[in-house]
C-alpha cells in the first residue's frame, strides 16, 4: 500500500523525530549514567499524599466516571489555579477562572494554541536555543521559527529589533524562567522592553513557565502576563508536571476569553474532554498540603543536585574544556565545549565509550548547524553520589574524544 | 484586540459549535426529562471493581507518576486488546500489539487520523446521517464530507457507486455496528461489497466501532477490519467509554505500522503522552473480571431500556405521528415524524413546553436541510420507570406542536 501517497503534507513533511528521545533510547540500551533526562527526580513525587488524594476522590461522589461537562477542565481546579497565581502576583486583574484552561500537560497547550493561531507560512519568533518539542509543534503547523539569541538575562534585544524591522511576526514563544535548555531567566526589565516591542509590532507572546516554582534563590522574576496588565497579548502556560508528577498530565493555559473559547472548541474536536479523576486528585492534593513547604523541599533538593553536579563538573570535566553556567532554578546546566564541532557525534561517543549520556545543545537551536559546541546537562535526577561519577565519565569522554579529533586532523 | 485578525483560517472558519451540547444545556437548565443523552447509564459503571483496580495500581510500583515512555500507550493494555479482539475474531492475522495505539477516547483517534490524512479540500465519504463530532473534526481539517444514505442494513450501495464514479475520495468513515444516531448495523455482505469498492476506487475505510459489545441479540456482524484480511486499508477505532466508563478517556486505534508510527509522532507533538495510571487501571479491571458476564449485564440492561422506551413510545407518541425503528444494540432509537418540517424547532418546543429533551435528527446529516423530520431518542440512561413518562411528554409535545403548526398555516 502506498502510504506516503495517502498521508497529507503534514504527515509526509512536517512530522519530526525527537532527537532527544533517540539519544535517551540509546542511553538506556547502553545502560548509561544519565545527565540527559529532562524530567523530575522520582523520589520527589509526593506519592503518599497523592495516593490519599486519589483514594478520597475515587470514593467520593464527584462525577469522575462520566464524560466531563466542563470541557475547559474541572471548575474547582481552575479556581484554585487562578487564586494561587493571583496570590503570587503572576496574573493581572482581568484573569478570572474562566481564563484558565486545563491541558494534558503544557504540550497540549502548545499544540492547541498553534492550532488556533498558526497557518502554514506564519513566521514566529523563538528563543535560540529553545525547547525542541515546542519548535516541532510550531513547524508541524507549517510555521517558520526565527531564532533570537538568548543571553543570560533574556533575549538579545538588538537582534530582536532587527528581525522585527524586517518582517511581520505572529507571536514570540518564550520560556522566561529557568529556561530549557539554558537555565537562563529573562529579567523583568527585558520583559517590559519586549512587551513594548510586542505592542509596537503587534505580536502575541506565548509564555511557557513550567520551572518557575523550582527557584533556588527566593522568588524568581515576574511574568510577562502580569507585566502586560490590561494589554491581553500574553498567553501563559503553566504545568504541574515539574512540581507534582508529569504522569498526571496536567497543565494549564491562561488566556483571554476569545482564546479560551476557541480552545474549548478545539478540545471538543480533539479529545472531547480530559479525565476528571486526575484533575480532582490534583486539586485535593494542592488544596490539602502545605504547598510552599512542598515547593521548598523540591527547590532545596534540586539546588543540592545543581551544586553537586556543577562542582563535580568543575573538578573533572571543565579541565577538559567544558564551560558551564549554573542556573538559579529548574533542571538544567548549559555549557559549551569550544573545541567540539559536532556535539551530537560527541553525545553518542560518550554513551558508547564512557556510558554517560548528555544532550547535545545543537538540537535546541531553530536553525541547523548552530550551537554545535553546546551541551545540556540535567541535574534534576542526578543525586550527589552520582554527580561525581557522571562528571568523571564526562571528563574522560571529553579527553578521549579530543584525542580522537586530534588523530583525525592529519587526514 | 483584534482576535479574528489573529486567529488562523481554521479557528475563524472551521470550528463548529456542538448543537447537541447546546440542546443539552438548555435541557439541563429547564430540568427536562432527557431522551437525548448519548452516554452510558451511570449505574452500570463498575465503580467498586474500578476502585479496587485503581487502589492496586496506585500502590504498585508501576511507572505511573513519570512521563510515559510508551507513547503509543501502555504495552500490557495494547497486548490485552489485541488478544481480546483476536479471540472475538475482529482482527486479521497481521494485527500485532504494535498495531494498537491507545487514545484519549475515540475522539482523539478520529482527530489524529484526520491530522494524518486530511488536507483542506480532501473529499471523504460519510454515512448520512452520522456522528456530528466526527463530521466536525473532518471539517476542521478542511475536508468536504459527502453523505451516502444509510439504510437499515448499511450504506446505499447504488448511491455510493454513483458518488465514487464522479470523484476521488480519500476515505470512508463508517460506524457499522449499532450506529449513532440510527442504531443500524451494516450487514457483513454489504461490508464485503464496500471493501470491493474501496479496492476498486482505492480509498481507506475508517471503522468506528464503540457500540459493538452492547448487542441485544447475540454476536453482532463482523468488522470491516477482519473482512479486509491482508488488504490493510481499514483503520479501526475501539473504545472503553461505553463498556467501562467514558471518564477514563480510553479508546484505541488499530492500524498498519506505517500509520501507528505517524500517530506516535502526532501524539508526541500533541500531548507528549497519556496518563499511564488510567490505562493500567483499565488493564487490571478487564484482566481481572469476568468480562463476558460484565458485557452481558450491560446488554441486558440496555435491552430492557430499549424495550421499555420503544413500547412506551408506541403507546404514547406513535399515535401522534412518530415512527421508530428499534436497534439490535447500542444506545439509540431512530425515528421520523413525517409532518414535522423543522425538528430543531420542535426540540426546543418540547423542552420548554413539556420538559422532555430529544435530539433533532437533522444535526446528524452532513448536508444542511436534510433529515428535518428525523429524531434521535436515547434509551441508554432512561430507566423503564422514566420511559413511560418520557414517552407521554413527547406525545403531548407532538400533539401541541401539531396544533401550533396548524394554527400557523393560514398565515
Q: Brief description of this entry?
A:
The structure is a homodimer of 411-residue chains. Chain A has 411 residues and is α/β, with parallel strands linked by helices. Chain A is 46% helix and 14% strand.
How would you describe this structure to a colleague?
- Chain A has helices at 3-6, 9-14, 19-29, 47-58, 75-87, 105-117, 132-140, 157-166, 188-201, 224-228, 257-271, 276-288, 291-316, 343-354, 384-408, and strands at 33-34, 100-103, 123-128, 144-151, 154-155, 171-174, 204-208, 234-239, 251-254, 323-325, 332-336, 356-357, 359-360, 374-378.
- By secondary structure, chain A is of the alpha/beta class.
- Chain A has two domains: 3-45 and 293-408, Aspartate Aminotransferase, domain 1, CATH 3.90.1150.10; 47-289, Aspartate Aminotransferase, domain 2 (3-Layer(aba) Sandwich), CATH 3.40.640.10.
- In chain A, helix 4 (47-58) crosses helix 12 (276-288).
- Chains A and B meet through helix 2, helix 4, helix 6, helix 7 and helix 11 of A and helix 2, helix 4, helix 6, helix 7 and helix 11 of B.
Amino acid at each position: 500500500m502506498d502510504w506516503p501517497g495517502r498521508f497529507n503534507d503534514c504527515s509526509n513533511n512536517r512530522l519530526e523525530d525527537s532527537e532527544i528521545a533517540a539519544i535517551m533510547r540509546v542511553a538506556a540500551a547502553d545502560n548509561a549514567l544519565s545527565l540527559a533526562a529532562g524530567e523530575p527526580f522520582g523520589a520527589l513525587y509526593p506519592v503518599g499524599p497523592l495516593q490519599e488524594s486519589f483514594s478520597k476522590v475515587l470514593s467520593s461522589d464527584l462525577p469522575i466516571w462520566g464524560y466531563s461537562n466542563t470541557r475547559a477542565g474541572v471548575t474547582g481546579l481552575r479556581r484554585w489555579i487562578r487564586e494561587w497565581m493571583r496570590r503570587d502576583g503572576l496574573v493581572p486583574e482581568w484573569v478570572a477562572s474562566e481564563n484558565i484552561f486545563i491541558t494534558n500537560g503544557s504540550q497540549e497547550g502548545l499544540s492547541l494554541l498553534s492550532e488556533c493561531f498558526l497557518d502554514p507560512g506564519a513566521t514566529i519568533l523563538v528563543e535560540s536555543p529553545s525547547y525542541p518539542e515546542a519548535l516541532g509543534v510550531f513547524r508541524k503547523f507549517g510555521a517558520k521559527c526565527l531564532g533570537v539569541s538568548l543571553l543570560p538575562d533574556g533575549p538579545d534585544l538588538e537582534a530582536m529589533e532587527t528581525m522585527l524591522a524586517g518582517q511581520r511576526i505572529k507571536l514570540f514563544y518564550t520560556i522566561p524562567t529557568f529556561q530549557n535548555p539554558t537555565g537562563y531567566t529573562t529579567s523583568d526589565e527585558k520583559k517590559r522592553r519586549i512587551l513594548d516591542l510586542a505592542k509596537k509590532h503587534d505580536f502575541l507572546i506565548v509564555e511557557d513557565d513550567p520551572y518557575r516554582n523550582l527557584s533556588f534563590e527566593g522568588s524568581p522574576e515576574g511574568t510577562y502576563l502580569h507585566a502586560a496588565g490590561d494589554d491581553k497579548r500574553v498567553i501563559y502556560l503553566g504545568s504541574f508536571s515539574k512540581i507534582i508528577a508529569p504522569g498526571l498530565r496536567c497543565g494549564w493555559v491562561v488566556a483571554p476569553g476569545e482564546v479560551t473559547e476557541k480552545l474549548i472548541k478545539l478540545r471538543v474536536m480533539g479529545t472531547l474532554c480530559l479525565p476528571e479523576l486526575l484533575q480532582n486528585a490534583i486539586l485535593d492534593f494542592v488544596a490539602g498540603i502545605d504547598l510552599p513547604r512542598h515547593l521548598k523541599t523540591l527547590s532545596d533538593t534540586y539546588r543540592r543536585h545543581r551544586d553537586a553536579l556543577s562542582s563535580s563538573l568543575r573538578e573533572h570535566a571543565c579541565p577538559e574544556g567544558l564551560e558551564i553556567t549554573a542556573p538559579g532554578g529548574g533542571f538544567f546546566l548549559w555549557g559549551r565545549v569550544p573545541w567540539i564541532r559536532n556535539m551530537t557525534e560527541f553525545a553518542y561517543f560518550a554513551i558508547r565509550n564512557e556510558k554517560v549520556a548528555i544532550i547535545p545543545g545543537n538540537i535546541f537551536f531553530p536553525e541547523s548547524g548552530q550551537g554545535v559546541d553546546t551541551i545540556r546537562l540535567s541535574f534534576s535526577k542526578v543525586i550527589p553520589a552520582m554527580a561525581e561519577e557522571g562528571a568523571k565519565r564526562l571528563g574522560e569522554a571529553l579527553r578521549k574524544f579530543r584525542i580522537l579529533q586530534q588523530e583525525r586532523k592529519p587526514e
